[in-house]
Design brief:
The chain has about 260 residues and is mainly β. The protein has one domain: Porin, CATH 2.40.160.20. The protein contains one helix and eight strands. It has an eight-stranded antiparallel beta barrel with strand order 1-2-3-4-5-6-7-8. Strand 1 and strand 2 form a beta hairpin.
């Protein structure tokens, strides 16, 4: 009898364990975590920047007592930019960008003497030329390689600007002679490169270097018989910027 009772209890325990194994689990389902979508550089963007402008101007003349001289200009610049990026093949980014920059870059150079004054002997007048850079603008193409939120790019295209040259002078007795100022609209090209980083899906910072070449232009002094003062200008700029990227909507990820 005792043996029969023990066998019955053991059988009941085994049956209970098997029945419990067939019951559904009471554990909660794991919380769904959507995968983080890869960052995309595709989209329109608009931004503002500020930096420094460093120009190198070569002056050429055959009436001033010297043949050529280099004048370096520098100043603060700032403006805005707008463009569009398209990312393809995961890491490559192409785009187009336009920008406009106001500039305060300037410098003045002075010299003594020039052609002898008829009937007055040696020319001891003091002459000076002030060079100013008013603004820069460009329409460029961009080509870059992205590493998630970082983008390294090259930039280049057509550039325009406005330079101003003022030529004046004093006599040995410190009498103001005359002066002439001319604004010159310039055209040329620019090339450069930079790096951008997306701090958020929409806010993108950048550091950029750009080189401009505007070729040569002439400024005519106040004395009509003098030949022109030929000016050749190149500009280097370094700037930092912040832009808002209107990125494409993120793809919808199905939840199961």
């Amino acid at each position: 009898m005792r043996t029969l009772l023990l066998s019955t209890v053991a059988f009941a325990a085994l049956a209970g364990s098997a029945f419990a194994a067939d019951l559904p689990s009471r554990k909660e389902a794991p919380v769904y975590v959507a995968p983080v979508p890869a960052f995309s550089w595709t989209g329109f963007y608009v931004g503002a920047d500020i930096g420094g402008s460093f120009g190198s101007t070569s002056l050429h003349s055959n009436w001033s007592g010297w043949n050529s001289h280099s004048v370096d200009t520098s100043g603060v610049m700032g403006g805005g930019y707008v463009g569009y990026n398209y990312q393809w093949n995961q890491n490559f980014v192409i785009g187009v960008e336009g920008d406009f920059q106001g500039s305060g870059s300037s410098n003045t150079w002075s010299w003594v003497g020039g052609p002898a004054l008829v009937g007055l002997g040696p020319n001891l007048n003091v002459y000076n030329v002030k060079l100013e850079e008013n603004w820069l603008a460009a329409i460029n193409g961009r080509l870059g390689i992205s590493y998630d939120r970082a983008l390294f790019y090259a930039i280049g295209g057509a550039a325009w600007g406005q330079g101003k040259a003022t030529v004046g002078g004093y006599s040995p007795s410190n009498v103001w002679l005359a002066s002439v100022s001319e604004n010159k609209d310039l055209s040329g090209y620019d090339v450069g490169g930079g790096v951008e980083y997306a701090f958020t899906p929409n806010w993108v910072g950048r550091v950029e270097y750009r080189y401009y070449d505007f070729g040569k232009y002439n400024v005519y002094p106040w004395v009509g018989n003098y030949t022109p003062l030929r000016i050749e200008t190149t500009v280097n700029t370094v700037r930092v910027g912040l832009a808002y990227l209107f990125s494409a909507p993120a793809p919808v990820v199905a939840k199961y």
